[in-house]
Design a protein that fits this description.
The complex is a heterodimer. By secondary structure, chain A is mainly β. Chain A contains no helices and 11 strands. In chain A, strands 2, 4, 5, 9, 10 and 11 form a 6-stranded mixed sheet that branches. A 5-stranded antiparallel sheet of chain A has the order 1-3-8-7-6, with no helix packed on it. The radius of gyration of chain A is 13 Å and the shape is globular. Chain B is 0% helix and 54% strand. Chain B contains no helices and 11 strands. Chain B is mostly beta strands. Chain B has strands spanning 4-7, 10-13, 19-25, 32-38, 42-51, 54-57, 64-70, 73-78, 87-93, 107-108, 112-116. Classes of the chains: A mainly beta, B mainly beta. The A-B interface holds A 9, 32, 34, 41-46, 49, 51, 90, 94, 96-104 and B 1, 31, 33, 35, 40-45, 48, 50, 56, 58, 90, 92, 95, 101-111.
Chain lengths: 111, 117
């Protein structure tokens, strides 16, 4: 069965530092993978998605993710954190009509 | 925000009472979903719909039922609310239909915070 594991329920970075949020997937077939962001008291917003067209995927707000089949990973990165990036981030995998979400990683950005 | 509205946004109800949450979309998307969000669990799929009157169970469907009589509306009903159903509920609609039915849930509602006392 397809699933995702997010490593670290909380990540804290300084403003201007690299953001790295980790996601590993398990899938017996080429997966469709996603990253979503959730700001307080809001719904989820799609950041980016991998659908096998390219291994490096660029999303909104300067985020990108790289699909690495050998490592079964789809980590989310941003070169320089901004205070407005503080939110909760979810990795997800498509399974048929369903999307399966990881437990989420809350990103804190320190001034 | 995409044309997706959840109502009510907040509700407090007593154990044992029925509760219905509504999701309304103006995007004419085929796929609609209900999730619940709880700390440490991410979002878990309750039920989903792939067309009018076409629904199926997700991973946490016990105690919930759904109905979709029109493309734009997807209702989630808690037949007899329990404290374990206290949660934030999200409705989602698909971004688009693609070959093989693979599509992304690109649009989420604002959520309904339900408290069962």
């Amino acid at each position: 069965a397809q699933s995702v594991t997010q490593l670290g329920s909380h990540v804290s970075v300084s403003e201007g530092a690299l953001v790295l949020l980790r996601c590993n997937y398990s899938s017996s077939v080429p997966p469709y993978l996603f990253w979503y962001v959730q700001y307080p008291n809001q719904g989820l917003q799609l950041l980016l998605k991998y659908t096998s067209a390219a291994t490096l995927v660029k999303g909104i707000n300067g985020f990108e993710a790289e699909f690495k089949k050998s490592e079964t990973s789809f980590h989310l990165t941003k070169p320089s954190a901004h205070m407005s990036d503080a939110a909760e981030y979810f990795c997800a995998v498509k399974r048929g009509f369903k999307t399966i979400f990881g437990a989420g990683t809350r990103l804190f950005v320190k001034a | 925000d995409a044309g997706i509205t959840q109502s009510p946004r907040h509700k407090v109800t007593e154990t044992g009472t029925p509760v219905t949450l509504r999701c309304h979309q103006t995007e004419n998307h085929r796929y609609m979903y209900w999730y619940r969000q709880d700390p440490g669990h991410g979002l878990r799929l309750i039920h989903y719909s792939y067309g009018v009157k076409d629904t199926d169970k997700g991973e946490v469907s016990d105690g919930y039922s759904v109905s979709r009589s029109k493309t734009e509306d997807f209702l989630l009903t808690l037949e007899s609310a329990t404290s374990s159903q206290t949660s934030v509920y999200f409705c989602a609609i698909s971004e688009s239909e693609r070959t093989g039915g693979i599509s992304a849930e690109a649009f989420f509602g604002q959520g309904t915070r339900l408290t069962v006392v």
